[in-house]
Specification:
By secondary structure, this protein is an alpha+beta fold. The protein folds into three domains: about 65-75 and about 300-375, conserved putative lor/sdh protein from methanococcus maripaludis s2 fold, CATH 2.40.420; about 80-85 and about 215-295, Elongation Factor Tu (Ef-tu), domain 3 (Beta Barrel), CATH 2.40.30; about 90-215, RNA polymerase II/Efflux pump adaptor protein, barrel-sandwich hybrid domain (OB fold (Dihydrolipoamide Acetyltransferase, E2P)), CATH 2.40.50.100. It has three helices and 25 strands. The chain has helices spanning about 30-60, 125-150, 155-180; strands spanning about 5, 10-15, 65, 65, 70-85, 90, 100-105, 110, 115-120, 185, 190-195, 205, 210-215, 220-225, 240-245, 245-260, 270-275, 285-305, 310, 320-325, 330-335, 335-340, 345-350, 360, 375. The strands form seven sheets. It has a six-stranded antiparallel barrel with strand order 5-14-17-16-15-18. A four-stranded antiparallel β-sheet has the order 6-13-11-8, with no helix packed on it. The chain has a four-stranded antiparallel β-sheet with strand order 10-9-7-12, with no helix packed on it. Helix 2 (about 125-150) packs antiparallel against helix 3 (about 155-180). The two termini are about 85 Å apart.
Length: about 375
Amino acid sequence: METESRGAGELSIIRGAGLPVPAPQPKPIEKRRRGRRILSAIATIAVLGLAFAGWGAWLEPPRVAVVLPSRGPAIEAVYATGVVEAIDYARFGATVAGRVAELRVDEGDVVRKGDVVARLDDRQPRARLQDAKARLTMAEAEIARDQTLMNRGVLAVQTLERAQQERDQAAAAVDLFARQLEDYTVLSPLSGTVMKRDVQLGETVAANAVMFEISSTARKRIAADVDERDIAGVRLGASLAARADGFPDEAFQAKVTNIRRQGDASSRTFRVEADLPADTKLMIGMTVDVDVVVNEKPDALLLPAGAIAHGPSQGGRPGAPFVFVVDNGRARRVDVKTGAVGTARIEIVSGLKDGDSVVVDPTDRTRDGQAIRVSP
């Protein structure tokens, strides 16, 4: 039953007790608080789950990759820097002092042995030679006259002998001045190419000053400086490979032909020479990087370079090498001795066997006796 009453401008509605009454709705702020409690609970559960998973992962042994040693050739070489030079070359000039009157060659010219390359001003020695020749002519004429007088019995034998002595002295002077005149002409001592000319026309040069450098391009060699710590392993006939910046994609092969027995005290190196083939592309004066083979094994035990760790450095050099071997689910440190070292693989001389499982790229946290899992 429902009644309405009006009074004093108001409208009143009275609902009967038998009719359903809707429940009061919660206020908006109460809805937001309830949603925040649910999200907080979900986040807490997620964090606890992640923490539990991380704790479990931390407790599990770390996974590692392993590799078995392989067999293959190992070449041990020592590194050196060198230069390409001519086997036959000469640095020369005039044996006397004088002014350069003539130059017949320039840098890059090809000459033959005995060719005239320069002349010095030879007017004075030529004049001395002409004077000596004139005195010789007079001495020979004096001998002819004295011989006639002696045959007539007018001249003594002693006078003729003195004239003959003067003739011999004049002849010797002619020979001497002729040889001196030859010194004013500079000849090439060998066949080759003029690599350098250190003189200009009209310049006055000292005796034995270097005027030209001539090299034969027919025979070349590599001259390398090997560190004194490595020279003991270098042998005559050893193979070497040379690389030059001018030919970056090529390696030039040669054999050691000479080892200097006296080293350079300042650089602490020994000179090693290797003859190049006649058809080599390397040019005289090129700088080369050289690897000289000191030991070669056809069936060496090899490991990837990343599998080998080193102890603390000693004197600027890496410390003692070692590896980690998987032994019954644990990492076991094994000291090894290395031989030939390459960019990708390193020879193991002792400490390992063919079937050992070696950890690849061990970290600083890998420890001897640590439990590990092998990655499939």
